[in-house]
Design a protein that fits this description.
Elements (H helix, E strand, L loop, with lengths): L1 E5 L17 H11 L2 E6 L4 H11 L6 E4 L4 E6 L2 E4 L1 H10 L5 H8 L5 E3 L10 E5 L4 H12 L5 E8 L4 E8 L4 H11 L7 E5 L5 H4 L4 E4 L5 H13 L4 E4 L11 H11 L7
Parallel strand pairs: 1-2, 1-10, 2-3, 10-11, 11-12
Antiparallel strand pairs: 3-4, 4-5, 6-7, 7-9, 8-9
Helix pairs in contact: 1-9
Bound molecules: magnesium ion.
């Protein structure tokens, strides 16, 4: 069975500055329910904020939620979220040096970053707001202090809605990419049959991990450039850049996700 995995904010959800096609979300819901596929949301949002997005935008419930930037995995069955018990064990096994409290203590003295609210932290996610204008200098200090000590991944992204820089420290084995790899493996789905759609920062990892990638048309310039560079280095990567025109849609947000699904044959052409 094919897997359709998508980021939420500004990928599936039309919450950026580009115009959204009316009716695109209804079409997405209909097509993904009509055609047999496993729908996975891969998002920085926690469970509460994911449910808020489902209510606010009317996107359907997924089959699997890789939330909190991939640090949590839940299945959705008959109105209930079921945590995946194997995931935490695997992360502990694969990133034995990970220690959120130690990361916190290590970066405590660095200026220009502020710890995020408790709802955005978990044992596998130590996150900060960063002064975006000073990011280069801050990230340099962060790397010098942290890099390589905690089996960690250091992921920076930028929230274009509020101008905030977001910095996540995660176990290297619990990112958007590894969470999706875990879900694919659990469903015996080869990488190329996993379509992943994204728009920014931390989507770079799943977009360059050998899945069938889709960049929605509104994707960040920085991400587009990084993905193009990755494709030059590794011509075997499959990445599709949505451009609009599919079923009369614009290619932005939800429409770009739909366009990518047609491109990779998840929905048959009419
Ligand atoms: Mg996004």
């Amino acid at each position: 069975m094919h897997i359709l995995a998508t980021d939420l904010d500004r990928t599936l959800l039309p919450n950026g500055s580009w115009p959204a096609d009316p009716g695109a979300i209804e079409l997405f819901n209909e097509l993904t329910q009509q055609h047999e596929l496993l729908l996975v949301y891969v998002t920085g949002r926690n469970l509460d904020l994911t449910e808020a997005a489902i209510r606010e935008y009317g996107v359907r419930y997924p089959d699997v939620l890789c939330g909190d930037v991939g640090t949590t995995i839940r299945r959705y069955r008959q109105g209930e979220w079921l945590p995946d018990p194997g995931w935490d064990d695997k992360v502990h096994r694969d990133s034995p040096a990970w220690d959120a409290a130690a990361v916190r203590a290590t970066v405590a003295g660095i200026e220009g970053m502020r710890e995020q609210e408790a709802a955005h932290l978990n044992p596998f996610k130590q996150s900060y707001y960063v002064d975006h204008a000073r990011r280069e200098q801050i990230l340099e200090q962060v790397e010098a202090a942290v890099k390589g000590r905690f089996d960690e991944a250091i992921v920076y992204s930028f929230d274009s809605r509020n101008g905030k820089g977001l910095l996540d420290f995660l176990p290297a084995s619990a990112t958007k990419q590894t969470a999706l790899e875990y879900v694919a493996q659990a469903h015996d789905t080869p990488r190329e049959e996993v379509v992943f759609c994204g728009d920014s920062g931390n989507d770079i990892f799943p977009l360059t991990a050998g899945f069938s990638g889709v960049l929605v048309r509104n994707a960040d310039e920085q991400l587009v450039e990084n993905v193009r560079l990755a494709c030059e280095r590794n011509p075997a990567l499959r990445v599709y850049f949505a451009r609009g025109g599919c079923r009369g849609l614009s290619g932005y947000y939800t429409s770009g996700v739909i366009e990518g699904c047609y491109h990779y044959g998840l929905f048959p052409r009419q």
